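Data deposition worksheet. Section B asks for the primary sequence of the deposited chain exactly as it was used as input, without tags or linkers unless they were present during the calculation. Section C holds the resulting structure in token form. Section D is free text for depositor observations; keep each observation to a single sentence. Incomplete worksheets are returned to the depositor.
Section A, Depositor: J.P.
Section B:
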Amino acid sequence: MHCVSTNKFEPQSKNLPSIIRGFKSAVTKRSKKINSNISWQPRYYEHIIRSEKSFEKISEYIINNPLKWELDKYYV
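Section C:
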């Protein structure tokens, strides 16, 4: 019998935040082995794409945003 839990506060391992947390953890551990000084952006924006228009807008942002890095106040 398959039991489905209704407790939303129990540990979750198959959702986007837990996948990102695991990825960041693995990359951080590996980078420390090669003496890399890595740091992560503390937050990220999660969005479910529900339409073609939304997909196009987000795609455009992903493509064009790195081109604006030199204009950022944190650019060194």
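Section D:
The radius of gyration is 18 Å.
The chain has one domain: 16-71.
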